[in-house]
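Researcher: Let's try something more involved. This one mixes different molecule types, so please make sure each is placed in the same coordinate frame as the others.
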Amino acid sequence: MLSAALLAGVELGLNRVLAMDSTALPRLARLHGRIIAVDCQAPAVQLFILPDGEGLRLAAQWSGAVDCRLRAPASSLLRLLASQDKSAVLHGPEVELDGDSAALLELAGILQDLELDWEYELSLWLGPVGSQLLGGHLRSRVSWTGQALGSLRLNLADYLSEEARSLVGQREADARFAELDRLKLALDRLDARIERLTHRHKPTA
Amino acid sequence: MAATLIQPLCLGKGDMNDSRKSSDSEPTTHFGFQDVPESQKAQKVAEVFHSVAAKYDLMNDLLSGGMHRLWKRFTIELSGVRSGNRVLDIAGGTGDLTKQFARLVGPSGEVVLADINESMLKVGRDRLLDRGVAGNVKFVQADAEKLPFPDNHFDCVTIAFGLRNVTHKEDALRSMLRVLKPGGRLLVLEFSKPSSSLLSKVYDSYSFTFMPLIGKLITNDADSYRYLAESIRMHPDQDTLKAMMVEAGFERVTYHNMTGGIVALHRGIKP
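Model: All components are placed in one shared frame. Result:
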């Protein structure tokens, strides 16, 4: 009963978050009827996910058939949640996947694409003026931080390449890489020509 | 005080048939701790539920501390209901299970909420419609002993906290078996017998003092909640109900105790 209560709480919170993205629920509705089982091996926990147009239903057990079963340790499951390239994680040696993986990838994609309208949720608590003021302030802080980090990155690159001469500049590196590519291509051609000449002058038995 | 009210459960064949002969010729059955003529039980149960229908959900939450939601959640998990299935929710009351089943079966499936009590059915229908649950749900006033549905019709039949109010439980179980498709599942969620004697004593005190008191304060009706406590004690325990389901024709009958056996979920499969 404890795990059921815990899952009920997580499900409630998750569905409230999903409802804040206008596209998540219609996309989840397309997965209605699919049952995805997640077997976490270390620690040993089993979870069943049933997506539909109202959100996600989480169950500790499910007596019906399962469309897709994912077995992996917790570390791989966390990597799967966070990673942009989910296929790479799914092809890892410690991950086992049975059944229709498209449903799992679609679900992971929906969770990754979430764009939550926090300002609307804030407005329910603070009112339109308060949420606008707070939202505007937070947006300007985020924008300032982004600009500051971008500026820091450019200055650091300038210093390392132009003043300290520890690294080469981007354009210089590009020119060197292009030269290397040309050289590699020329070597390949020379190799092919030698191969052809050797074949032509080989004495016939 | 409360302990003196409790009558021992009769686990013999006579109790399983749920009817006893009184001094006159009409068979009697229990209504809580009273013996009443069989013809009167349905009417008396109906009066109880007419009285509590309006505040049924509030009282469920108060009396179970919200646990009834987890018990029903577990029932859903064990139902194995899928998209496109046809489900019958007997004694569906205010539609807690029906709402979840409607979500699971989707637009291609169908859920029938059946209840013998008109007031409960009305409250359930209004509540579900207010929450936007429509299209794949039907409402039927029906007696569990004589279900008005064709043979082999449903993939899953559930009865949650309703079987103890049925006069002839064997007839009801046979009727449920008839309407289930072969391979279909019956789930009976019902109050049962606590597995620990200490818990049993605490539970008795709670049932016979706290429940009627809360009933009196919230609905001004202590008698209905006294009946609830008494009817729970008169309901067959886990193993007896399992035997009844086997006798009715179900296979692979299992039960799961919840909250120390205060509630049990029985599951049987139609062969």
